[in-house]
Design brief:
about 525 residues; mainly alpha; Alpha-Beta Plaits; two-stranded antiparallel ribbon; two-stranded antiparallel sheet; 24 helices; 10 strands; about 45% helix; elongated
């Protein structure tokens, strides 16, 4: 019963958290956005003390329930491991903990957090790693399915669905997502929760607390006959049946061992009520000498073939997503069917961060690069950075759209307070940058035609058109920018007809201010 409850809760959490990264409308976030905010690292960076204390108490009471139910990356590994288990039963074995690697990575993670190295945090954080996988690999298929439904609905005179562009938001982030997916899939396919118990810093922290949890699975030595069935079904490789020991720092409280024991020798009870030997959490030197057969032992032909098929499918999945994400929906043309050249990203001295992020320093210090804000940006403004210091963290650019003053989706979904919640009124008054005009690129000077596109579409009326020649009122008009009114939304940059570079672009501000 405990295992069924755990599985049901894990499936619900995993499905809804995945949908948070797939849903581009923001509807699901209104109901289940709290699931992202109760993830351990986002809650810690947001200084949400209540959630952090709640997760600590949960672990001290029941063990690493967080890892087996709430963490989407942990459940993802369980899904892969479950598929592998269909091909080969009883495939795990006990192995001693690699403590030096676990605590070494945790120390590096803490130093990166203190030093503000967001890229390293983003690579190691489990929630962020799964977010990149979902938003870069799963989301394109979700969007293509939506576009297919929109096509069919349109043929039936229904507009219940609308099409969306499917595009690659960042090559570096996409590549890291593919590598992460393949590495985690291989580790989970072969050895279950290897990543969680050797690399994941959140798993190491919670594992330390889980050693002192009140409820835990314990072995009744009077009933146990040493068959090893529990150890061969333990995806955390933490049950030493020879010594009747369970390493609770690695146990994720999945209850699989309890369901597999045929003699009812394993129970999930208060650990303090049993003799010390049965709840020992450390591994003695003699334990390593009594290790069960290694999981790396030669597999059967059937198992090897199944593994090759799985890895081939994963590779084809990644290549397919890479190729299709690079395909543009259509070639844009003007009224005369002349092709329109794509815009290029300008060289900005200071990157633009979203309204609500307060400053570049606050944003990089709190962002875990989970890509949740990128997923919900319907204006295609947010995309992962390729800069080494802010790698994978979102930055703004206006080649495909501009930051509409009425949209606050990124601030609504951010779980770490890297983008703090703001209202529409607040956003219209937050200056994230200012527009800069380049006269040598303006069509008024290059083609000798009237334009004024930037001034017509500026939502704050920060751009005025004035005669190019002050002494000739009838001369072509050029833009003049009032930087005190400009909020840096990028409407002027996006809608400027100059190609490939806009004649007017937005330069970011290190510190945002209210105007």
């Amino acid at each position: 019963m405990l295992r069924k409850i755990r599985l049901t809760a894990a499936v619900i959490f995993f499905t809804l958290i995945t949908l948070l990264f797939l849903d581009f409308t923001g509807t699901i976030h209104q109901w289940f956005g709290w699931m992202a905010k109760i993830q351990f690292l986002p809650a810690l960076l947001a200084v949400n003390i209540g959630i952090v204390i709640g997760l600590v108490v949960l672990t001290l009471l029941f063990g690493r329930i967080y890892c087996s139910v709430i963490c989407p990356l942990g459940v993802f590994q369980d899904v892969v491991s479950w598929i592998a288990g269909k091909q080969k039963k009883n495939r795990f074995s006990y192995s001693p903990a690699v403590s030096w690697l676990r605590y070494g990575i945790l120390a590096m993670f803490i130093l990166a957090m203190i030093g503000g190295f967001g890229s390293l945090l983003a690579l190691l954080a489990p929630y962020s790693a799964y977010g990149r996988i979902a938003s870069n690999l799963f989301a394109p298929f979700y969007q293509w399915a939506n576009n297919g439904l929109a096509y069919l609905a349109e043929r039936m005179d229904s507009y219940a669905f609308y099409t969306v562009d499917v595009w690659m938001k960042g090559i570096a982030t996409f590549s890291i997502a593919i590598i992460t997916f393949i590495v985690l899939a291989i580790l989970a396919w072969r050895n279950g929760r290897t990543y969680c118990n050797t690399i994941c810093p959140v798993g190491t922290i919670l594992g330390f607390l889980a050693r002192y949890s009140y409820f835990k699975p314990v072995i009744d030595t009077e009933k146990c006959n040493g068959c090893g069935l529990c150890a061969r079904n333990c995806k955390a490789a933490c049950i030493d049946t020879k010594e009747h020991r369970i390493d609770y720092s690695r146990c994720v409280a999945c209850m699989d061992c309890i369901g597999k024991c045929r003699r009812n020798a394993l129970k999930y009870v208060p650990g303090q009520s049993l003799p010390k030997k049965q709840v020992e959490t450390t591994t003695s030197p003699s334990a390593s000498a009594s290790v069960l057969p290694s999981a790396s032992a030669p597999a059967t032909e059937k198992s090897a073939a199944s593994r090759r098929h799985f890895l081939s499918a994963a590779t084809l999945f990644a290549v397919s997503a890479t190729l299709k994400a690079q395909v543009k929906p259509e070639k844009n043309v003007d009224g005369g069917l002349a092709p329109i050249e794509d815009k290029q990203k300008p060289e900005r001295l200071t990157p633009i961060t979203p309204p609500g992020s307060l400053s570049a320093r606050n944003f990089t210090g709190h962002c875990t690069a989970c890509q949740l804000c990128v997923s919900v940006c319907t204006n295609q403004v947010l995309r992962p950075s390729s800069n080494l210091m802010t790698l994978m963290q979102p930055e703004m650019s206006y080649e495909l759209g501009y930051c509409r003053p009425e949209c606050t989706k990124c601030a609504d979904v951010c779980p770490t307070s890297a983008i703090q919640p703001i209202s529409v009124a607040d956003k219209s008054a937050i200056q994230i940058g200012h527009a800069v005009w380049i006269k040598d690129l303006c069509v008024v000077n290059t083609d000798g035609v009237d334009c004024g596109n930037c001034a017509r579409h500026c939502p704050t009326a920060a751009i005025q058109m004035v005669p190019k020649d002050p002494e000739a009122p009838d001369s072509p008009k050029i833009p003049v920018i009032n930087t005190e009114r400009c909020i840096g939304c990028g409407a002027c940059e996006h809608l400027c007809p100059s190609r490939p570079l806009s004649a007017i672009y937005v330069e970011g501000h290190e510190m945002h201010r209210t105007i």
